[in-house]
Design brief:
Length: about 325
């Protein structure tokens, strides 16, 4: 009977052998936590609260996925870029695609300690009056009446919300008259709280306390006189709670409201993990929108955006001969 031979690892190679054995699981773990398992999101900061909530809920279902939502991520390296204003042809580059993922609303706001708050809230402002306040001010060719004398506060640098507001009035952000505020929309809100003559604009998620659903302290909303009869009628009194505003906006889509899409830009060759997350947001994530002051997309638009994402996935998988010829799919009406 032939004896089997026993081979021994030379003593000098033992440390190297152990190092290799120990490094393999760590390397595998490192690969799991990086690369395809991480989705990086950046862009419009006012949307971060809802994107954070979507991410939290999604990763509960898919713990192998890590989602980073933060500013400072270079747009070129982001998997998802949030752009919350009307998209033009130059906003979406070659090889990219865009869809709407939710909507948001901005309202005109003033300091709640202003001496004629009650009058302003009972009379309201027409759309044209707001345009004159924001874009003309006390210019040489247009002198505002005394009751309309405000200090307009705006964002110092280009920002999605300010661009969206200006676009609503057919203007550019640089056309907004007033004092530029550094920082974000929260800083803009704080500037209004500190100046009794202030007027500005902001989104529902900052104007209202998302816990109490009431307007935050120090701020008052100027109602919009939709029918332009010089007073705020009962059916125009929609601002007492966050939920009442959301209900009215979704039901009417009143064109005089400062409504805008929250769009996301992705690469046409995006990874499956990215497309799957966005599909989940469209199908299941809308239920969290109202809690953070965002509006739902209507069912028809959701179906359309989901189909567009499916086409991107099919084209990337080689399961479809249909090419994605258009760069963006969102409605900019």
């Amino acid at each position: 009977m032939k004896k089997s031979k026993t081979y021994y690892l030379p003593f000098q190679l033992l440390p190297l052998f152990l190092m290799i054995q120990l490094s393999v699981p760590q390397q595998a773990l490192s690969q799991k936590d990086s690369g395809n398992q991480v989705i990086k999101i950046t862009g419009t900061r006012l949307t971060f609260p809802i994107f954070q909530r979507w991410s939290e809920e999604y990763t509960k279902l898919h713990p192998q996925i890590k989602i980073l939502v933060k500013s400072g991520i270079p747009s070129a390296s982001a998997d998802i870029l949030i752009v919350s204003h009307h998209l033009g042809s130059t906003d979406v580059k070659e090889g990219q695609a865009a869809i709407a993922i939710t909507r948001y609303l901005q309202l005109p706001i003033i300091n709640s300690q202003r001496d004629n708050v009650s009058t302003l809230q009972s009379d309201g402002f027409t759309e044209d009056e707001l345009k004159k306040v924001y874009f003309q001010g006390n210019s040489d060719d247009y002198i505002l009446p005394p009751e309309y004398h405000f200090v307009v506060y705006k964002r110092e640098k280009p920002a999605c919300a300010s661009i969206a507001l200006a676009n609503h009035f057919g203007q550019q952000q640089v056309d907004i008259k007033g004092v530029g505020i550094e920082g974000d929309d929260q800083d803009l809100l704080e500037a209004v709280k500190k100046d009794v003559k202030a007027i500005s604009y902001n989104n529902l998620g900052f104007i209202y306390d998302i816990q109490t659903r009431k307007v935050v302290d120090g701020i008052a909303i100027i109602p919009i006189d939709f029918n332009e009869n010089g007073k705020i009628d009962e059916d125009e009194k929609i601002y007492s709670t966050l939920d009442l505003v959301l209900q009215y906006a979704e039901k009417t889509n009143n064109p005089k409201l400062f409504l805008e899409n929250v769009n996301v830009i992705v690469q046409k060759n995006s990874r499956k993990e990215v497309i799957d997350f966005l599909q989940w947001v469209l199908k299941y994530g809308q239920r969290y929108n109202h809690a953070y002051g965002f509006l739902n997309l209507d069912k028809k638009q959701i179906a359309s955006e989901k189909e567009f994402l499916s086409n991107i996935h099919s084209a990337n998988s080689g399961n479809s001969s249909k090419s994605i010829s258009t760069n963006y799919h969102v409605s900019n009406d």
